[in-house]
Amino acid sequence: MAIRRRPVSEFEATAAKIGSQTVTLEALAGGYNGYTAPNLLSPQFWAAASQCYAGLFGTIRRARFAPAFNNTATGYVTSGLRMESMFALQDITNAVEWVLFENQNTSGNGPRWVFQYPLANFTNLMVNTKQASPVTSIWTIVNNQFGQLAFPLSLSMLAGPYSRVTINNFILEANNQFRSKVLYGLTGPGTDFSPFFEFWGIDAPDVSPSITLSAGLTASISSLLRTSNVVTVLTTANHGFTTGQYVTISGVADSSFNSASGTTQQISVTGSASFTFAQVGTDIGSTGGTATVQITQTVGRSYQYAWENANTGHVSAPSPASQFVKYSNQIGTIDLVEPGTISFIGGSTAVTGVGTSFSAAWAGKLLWTETLAGGTGQTAFIQSVTDGLHMTLAAPYPALVSASGSRFMVIDPQVTHVRLYETGDGGSVYFRTARNVVAFGSGGGIGASSGLRFTDTSNSQPPNAPFTSEITQNFNVPPPIGKYVADYQGRPIVFGVPGAQQSFFYGNMETTVVGQPPESFAPLNQVTLPIGDGIINGWANLPTGAVIWSNHQDMFKLAGLLTDNTVSNQFQLGATIQRLPYRLGCGSAFATTVTNLGVFWLTGDRQVMLFTDHYAPKNVGIPIQDILNRINGRISFARMKNYKRGERNWLALAVSLDSSTFNNKLLLLDLDLLASNGQPSYFTFDMATNQPTWYLFDINCECIETALDNLSQNHLLCGDVDLITDADYHTNDFTIASEQNVSGGTVTLHALGNENPELIKQIDWLRANTNQLPSALQAQGWSFGILQYDDEQWVLNAVNTGNLVTLTPGVNSDVIVRPLENSPADFRLNQGQLFAKGRRLQLQVNFPSTPGNWEFRGFQVRYTNNYER
Amino acid sequence: MPPLYIGSPGIATTLTSKPIKAMPPRAGSPVNPMSGPSNTLGPQAIRPTGPTQGFDPAYLQNLATAIGGLFSRPQGNLSFNPLGDLSGISQKTGFGNAPVPGIPGTMLQDALNGLGFGGSLTTPQQVQPQQPTSPIKPQPPRIPGRGPRQE
């Protein structure tokens, strides 16, 4: 293995001497270095470089780019807009890799897309087989009778860029406009198993249930017979009961048949004067008594209800409680409707209410209407709410369908069920007692199949049936809409909330007993940091805790166990947040990455820092600081990823330089070389014998992502206009089109003669070693160069172009290979018109631009120190 | 799959000898929570008011629902600013966590005081929209179900 660190003696003991000098420049190292004084560095160090990186054994390889996705993918409709975010995910269930990407398209198919990676056909929505599909559907597996439900709001709400985190197989998303999660690994209609999205969390119902009391029923019993723990009851007359109701049995001659205090029996009706119920006991018969279906309460019973998504196992926070209903030999009918009534006409999107209280929170939700004229089973989405009496639908009902004075309900389309909770007599705890399937189709009546009606006939008390042990999930409140998401200890984190830029909100763990903790944010689960007028602008997790940055110069560490905040426990006793003594902020919440060396981030001061939580942060971007200084006002769009594949272990940083309106420079830090070059554990560099190794790629990279293909090979993908490029293409990798030309591949070494510029030097000969046969170099397009510097005319680094001598194989050298003597890679100078002379001489390699695996391995050069001046 | 009812709809709707009292409509409100038959307790909505302060409408609605879900709504619907002073929906407290005796704040307290849902002696203070003073709310909202608000 080549030595990566130069011995100090190399720079101190070079004696000035007259005469011929022969040097072999191999194991070239260091990457781009625009910082260190040239006279400190060896000619075996890179000085300037573009479109190339260090290969094995100190070689230099030209970058290889190939399109992984472009406008020829079937199903994709070009927009001419730039991709702004990208996210790769693996659907383990279906053994498929997906890539999501977003742009700003607000028309047509919208800004969100998904494709299978590597590109392959998949069935989308039971109909079309395609390679890419827009993601604009909100639907659930159970409620897919309507197929795809088009996104009802403005497509601009789905525009990128997105911040995402994956927890519990949910991809939780933030784009500062819409609160969504992506589900995958599920099989939808037909064979469609492409990812789809729903609201993140379920909004709690915003209205208490309506309760109507009616008289109970009583029937006299003629006989009872218990057989095999089933009691058959015959009544003296038609009982009027219904299967599923709860009866109270009393006054039977054999008291074992009577209902114990606080209990009732759920019955199955077998005839107009007979019914059965389950009761454990000996086989015996009896006579007499009464069966009643009615409730009597002393203080009363209160109700709440909550929405449920059975596909994800989530349950919302409960509705407002009803007031306590004091039953007196009555039963209750519980209807889940909003206050007031609505009217609309077919073909119009306008909905008007009477006695209503429309809420702006309903945008994007489904409107269920109790009665429709002209058709049933219709659905409509709410697009916007003007005021408490007026709202607008995303699409009108059919022309002949209308409603007038109809009760209504508003439902999240992900809802599949509704759960009813009620208290015992004068109780304060709400237990679940029933669960209905919710159907979205309007106009079928509330008592038919909508699921929005319950009937309470049970005179029992908790914990007896129908009361269960499940209580309302008061803390299953969805998160606020923010700009960024992260995670900590399995909890999702939301920050960048417009109303609370100095706060972060975190998801539930302990207080969500039923439902999905990642979809729930207890209202007190928030922490505000003392950052003045700054905003939280970065989050990263180290083994010792989370590091949080502001956009200014604040850096905090969150450690310990984060726990749910409630009124009874509103202090984070297990967690601590301390301000770290470093004046370092974060320039982009997208530009933080945790690696095996620690966390890297781009500061607001345009530095790349490394923090291990063992030592103070280290500036590892010094060699490219001249590049970083050119990052323009789009610093908040900078992206950072850790790309690992084979011997690659790179930190990829995409930035926008100069006047560019998108990220146009990909900066790559070689993490393995960083670890081997830096002083152990400290990552300190003297910038002369060692330095962080950076590579510069000129590639449009507004968004970057690392994605695994179907062979579990990682790829570094860069998003552009209708194009995703694999920025580290390997032969036989997937590509949708031919490998691209890569122009501008070049590397310039530090100068020969830096140690003794008082001597005038003249190149005698130069031999270039590559991974190609010398005879092929000319056709492939290689060239080499010598930059000549006389310090008075061309000062190194002040005018860094020097006086260039270009060496073209086969043109400035022999065409024919003569073994051991001459070849197109050998250049004889100081003969005829071809000479190179100067106080300092920089050697340069220009790679071919055509597709291929081009690798430069070193120079052998002899020069003569002619005289001192 | 048919709904799983506790019982079944369609029971005779004969009024009982003890009908439920209707609640008076709230002044200025378009909503009459007790509309319909006199044995019906109408739906009662909770709505957030006041400036959004940068939060999305759904979050404010959820916050209002969570805060006010168990408090008395003698006038039907309840509107208040979930980011502001919550005294409009809960009664003043005594020292510490002690509620002021005799003034129900929650519907359970109403019921235990024999008020049922037919009426309440308390009248929630009308909450006015508040001007934002800071992008960050200094006091996080409380959670319902824990009794009156703690000062």
Instruction: Specify the number of helices of chain B.
Output: 2
The end-to-end span of chain B amounts to: 49 Å
How many individual β-strands of chain A?
64
User: Runs of chain B with pLDDT <50, length 5+?
Assistant: 1-36, 119-151
Q: Got a strand count of chain B?
A: 3
Describe the structure.
- The complex is a heterodimer of chains A (869) and B (151).
- Chain A is mostly beta strands and 869 residues long.
- Chain A is built from four helices and 64 strands.
- In chain A, the strands form 14 sheets. In chain A, strands 1, 3, 4, 58, 61, 62 and 64 form a seven-stranded antiparallel beta sheet that branches. Chain A has a seven-stranded antiparallel beta sheet with strand order 33-28-29-32-31-30-34, with no helix packed on it.
- Chain B is built from two helices and three strands.
- In chain B, β2, α1 and β3 form a beta-alpha-beta unit.
- The N terminus and C terminus of chain B are likely disordered.
- The chains are: A mainly beta (869), B little secondary structure (151).
- β16 of chain A pairs antiparallel with β1 of chain B.
Summarize this structure as a short list of keywords or feature phrases:
heterodimer; A: 869 residues; mainly beta; 7-stranded antiparallel sheet; 64 strands; 2% helix; elongated; B: 151 residues; little secondary structure; two-stranded parallel sheet; 2 helices; 3 strands; 12% helix; disordered N terminus; disordered C terminus
Question: Brief overview, please?
Answer:
Chain A is built from 4 helices and 64 strands.
Chart the SSEs and their pairings.
The complex is a heterodimer of chains A (869) and B (151).
Chain A: H1 9-12, E1 19-26, E2 46-50, E3 52-54, E4 60-62, E5 66-69, E6 85-91, E7 96-102, E8 112-116, E9 122-124, E10 128-130, E11 132-134, E12 163-167, E13 170-174, E14 179-183, E15 196-199, E16 210-215, E17 217-227, E18 230-235, E19 246-250, E20 265-271, E21 274-278, E22 284-287, E23 290-293, E24 295-296, E25 303-309, E26 314-315, E27 328-335, E28 341-344, E29 350-354, E30 366-369, E31 380-387, E32 390-393, E33 403-406, E34 408-411, E35 417-422, E36 431-437, E37 453-456, E38 484-488, E39 491-497, E40 500-506, E41 526-528, E42 536-542, E43 545-550, E44 555-560, E45 575-579, E46 592-595, E47 598-602, E48 608-611, E49 618-619, H2 625-628, E50 639-645, E51 648-655, E52 665-670, H3 671-677, E53 694-697, E54 703-708, E55 714-720, E56 723-726, E57 746-749, E58 759-770, H4 777-780, E59 783-789, E60 803-807, E61 826-828, E62 837-838, E63 840-846, E64 855-868
Antiparallel strand pairs in A: 1-64, 2-57, 3-4, 4-64, 5-56, 6-7, 7-8, 8-11, 9-10, 12-13, 13-14, 14-15, 16-27, 17-18, 17-22, 17-23, 18-21, 19-20, 19-23, 20-21, 24-27, 25-26, 25-35, 27-37, 28-29, 28-33, 29-32, 30-31, 30-34, 31-32, 35-36, 38-39, 39-40, 40-41, 42-43, 43-44, 44-45, 46-47, 47-48, 48-49, ...
Chain B: E1 40-41, E2 46-48, H1 57-68, E3 78-80, H2 107-112
